Amino acid sequence: MKKIFFAASSDTSKFVKELDEKYKVQVSDYSTVKEDEISDFDYYVFLIVPKLDRYELIVDSVDYSNKKKDKTIFCYLQNYGTEEFIKHQIKSLDATGKMIAANGGIWCKSIEEIVSEVSK
To answer: What is the pTM of this model?
Structure first.
């Protein structure tokens, strides 16, 4: 069973539960992982959604793409629930995705792409 370190910028517990149950992977939420456990994961997933309440995750995703390269997955959802990113935020998130990919990380454009990556 693959172990996934999951960090999201808002409450995405529904997505985490679906990954756990449907795709048979072990997902650990960013906020519950102890410092000494961080190196034990197969993937490090950073999901950014419009109700952004954890800005540090954008910086952390770039940092992990330098340290964990092909194990780091970055994704943002332009719409999530009733919230939506605006044009200049999308431009910044696209730049972040390009930087992560240039560092050797994986830039996914949808939840389905994340699932595809972790299912390999």
So the answer is: 0.87
